[in-house]
Design a protein that fits this description.
By secondary structure, the chain is mainly α.
């Protein structure tokens, strides 16, 4: 049971991290290529 809770939290954390990375990548690209 604890393992499933950990997996769920890890999945949500990975999703949030991926979204932040994409946003930062787009922001950096916009600055590099005006």
């Amino acid at each position: 049971m604890e393992t499933m809770d950990f997996l769920t939290r890890a999945k949500n954390w990975a999703k949030r991290l991926k979204r932040e990375v994409v946003v930062l990548w787009f922001a950096a690209r916009d600055r590099a290529y005006p």
